# Entry
Amino acid sequence: MKSIIFIAPPAAGKGTHSMLVKEEYNIPSISTGDLLRAARNDNSSIGEEIRKAQDAGLLVADEIVIELLKQRLKQEDCYNGYILDGFPRNIEQAKAYDELLQEINKELGFVIYIDVDKELAKKRTLGRLSCSNCGSVYNDMIDESKPKNNGYCDKCNSALSKRSDDTEETFDIRFDTYIEQTKPLIDYYKDKGVLYTVDGSISKFITFEEIKKILNGGD
Ligand code: AMP
# Structure
């Protein structure tokens, strides 16, 4: 399986579809948001920088993200492909990733844009619940995505929690950052001939069927 990059506004379904692809194709899903959340409690200036940026809804400095990703991609489970959830977030990161791919002798693979409008992204952000144990994502505001047992993960039964940056105020900043910095990646990857678009506003099961068609057809 080739590697996969998901590009989408906050809460459009990057995490959900990364988990579904991971289960279907048995490749790891790497969320830079999760890598950063794990590093933010570090008692160092880097930990503090991550906390400040994440809590304000801003992007963490490119060098920090790229270094964490570089270390992660060197792990053995990435040899046969991986999913990038939340990276790259701007053109600089995309260029740094192109260089990294050359260094580790891998190809770009698929880039999938999940199209969702601002109103729906906001609704999903405010209802989102995550399992910090297994990474599963649920949503209190969307029937098909509610956990079966209120407040607990269907898969591992751990307590679900809200992310500290899933507030109304931070959402607006994150969405603006997405429009200004991340959306230009659509043209960047279109020009390279690797971009596919799926509709993220419909049932996640139908969107996932579209994703599977892309992955199976292009392999
Ligand atoms: P996510 O879990 O993808 O929604 O990301 C949550 C937050 O982590 C973002 O709002 C950023 O502060 C930070 N973050 C995640 N991925 C990146 C990235 N590729 N570059 C910079 N900051 C990131």
